[in-house]
Amino acid sequence: MENLDIILLTVVVAVAFIVFIVTTLKEFTKMETETYTDVKSKPSYGRDALYDLLQKLFDDESIPKTDKKTALKTIGRTMADMESDGLYFPEEIKEKLAKDGIPLPAKKSDTKTLEDGK
């Protein structure tokens, strides 16, 4: 009975380890049968909020196609401005955007701004 504390501690650790293994296996079997759904419980900020906004914009059928095309042109001009400032996008992205109908100007000077007076 001298080592009762060591035996109790060993039993507690062993039970905790067994519970961990059982719940892990249970979750793996659950993953095989169910698909993953992203539940947004927190508000999103920054890049995530922008992606959510764009997804809602293009998934919404009530928004006219002209408004969607205007947004796509604005995105294209913004990407062109970013590239002229030194941030470059891979060619695969540019090709995909070209297929989707987003015109990407080659240079920043190709876009008209309010400073041009036009």
The percentage of residues in β strands lies in under 5%
Report how far the terminal alpha carbons are from each other.
Answer: 93 Å
Query: What characterizes the major β-sheet?
Result: none
Radius of gyration: 27 Å
Given as residue ranges, the uncertain stretches (5+ residues, pLDDT < 50) are 107-111, 113-118
The shape is elongated
The average pLDDT score comes to 75
**Class computed from helices, strands and strand pairing:** mainly alpha
How much helical structure, as a percent, in the residues?
55-70%
Count of discrete alpha- or pi-helical segments spanning 4 or more residues? 4
State the total count of DSSP E strands: 0
What's the SSE pattern? HHHH
Any overview of this molecule?
It is a single chain. This protein is mainly α and 118 residues long. Helix content is 61%, strand content 0%. It contains four helices and no strands. The longest helix has 30 residues. It is elongated.
Write the layout of secondary structure elements.
Layout: H1 4-33, H2 47-59, H3 65-84, H4 91-99
Task: Give a short summary of the structure.
By secondary structure, the chain is mainly α. The chain has four helices and no strands.
Question: Which descriptors would you attach to this protein?
Answer:
mainly alpha; 0% strand; 118 residues; 4 helices; elongated; disordered C terminus
